[in-house]
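G., before I forget:
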Amino acid sequence: MTVNTREDIKLSNAQIAWRAAQDILDGAYVNLGIGFPEMVARYQPPGRQAIFHTENGILNFGEAPPAGEEDWDLINAGKKAVTLKPGAAFFHHADSFAMVRGGHLDVAILGALQVAQNGDLANWRVGSKGVPAVGGAMDLVHGAKQVSVITEHVTKNGDPKLVEKCTFPLTGVACITRVYTSHAVVDIKDGHFVLREKLADMTIEELQAMTGAKLHIEGSVADLVVPEL
Amino acid sequence: MDKTIGSLAEAVSEIGDGATVMIGGFGGSGAPIELIHALIDKGSKNLTVINNNAGNGRIGIAAMIDAGMVRKMICSFPKSSDPRAFTDKYLAGEIELELVPQGTLAERIRAGGAGIPAFYTPTAYGTELAEGKAIAEFDGRHYVQERWLKADFAIVKAHLGDTYGNLTYNKAGRNFNPLMCMAAARTIVQVSKIVKAGEIDPEHVVTPGIFVDRVVEVANPSQEEELIRAGVAYAAPESQGAQA
């Protein structure tokens, strides 16, 4: 039986990033994972300014400089050239990860291959072939007050990414607190997925069919409303 | 006291075969490219190299790997925009890899410099990178025991260095460098400018000179990213013709 994964209505990556950005409060200290999560920085609501942390030792970095004006000692964790905002600070790697594990960050947002209903995350490798590379992923899932994932709801093959138990190698155990997907916002609470928001043009049954574990309902489920971007 | 030294070749002259060498930098940021290339010129073999990455392109650590100098890499992320040097050797079984989460790598180096033989961290608990390691529970959470990392040598890049070895860094080029300075038996630093003792405000010293043994000046250090964009491949002088 083929599940209808509602590709017709799904949010774009920019829209998923926008939704995640709405939950970041003014003055929050935030680490965004390399790649897709970096998009979240573009969609801070007006009047709010988060302070972004990059694990290679900067707080309050900003946009890329114009081409030709890069200082290649001033990069982010993705090795891209960045600039500084007023009030920026440098620090060495041990202090940087003390900020992470020590509970000083408010929010960390990562990508995912799979998220399990107990909050386990798999996002660093698919199997045992090739060159393994973990970077800071296993550290970043520990310590922040909110550790969120942004992701498509299903894989390109239509397989669920929200699952009962991860089958890919784990990045961390019981570490994820919230998942923003192309179709829904889901919290992880007491070992369960709790559905908070879903796209208005789909039913809970349709969303459940494309989810690999039970979606629990507590009270009402809000519409996931995102602007055109 | 004067820790300054006149040439890159002299600065790396003690790094012999089989040494464990911490190399500073995060990607190209803070990477001591000139010291690495001087080490390639020396041609030491069978090295264990500790760095966040495992080289990029055909320069720096990648060129060391290409030259067959590296027996083992201890790193968090052996990938880059051009990871061929490490990837080819790794897939051929010609280089050993100890993969360490980035924050654990930093803390292991810090611990090595601080005289702390082991510590517990939440990082990697329940994952394949914690296999075989001691686990302990503190206040209801599980933690993985990790051991210190020390090295025979550290080679790092800083910005200013004085004759006593006090250092400042350039922006995010700091990264692993202050930690590696602490964790090696001998620390060799390339700086953009050597100044007299007293010219760095003590309030601004990031690495105190007690952690530094040798300081060599490289006035306009190469940046890995710029060398890669220019298509540079580094090889020791006697073999440059063959590589060209």
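The radius of gyration of chain B is 18 Å. Chain B touches chain A through 55 residues (CB under 8 Å).

More on Monday.
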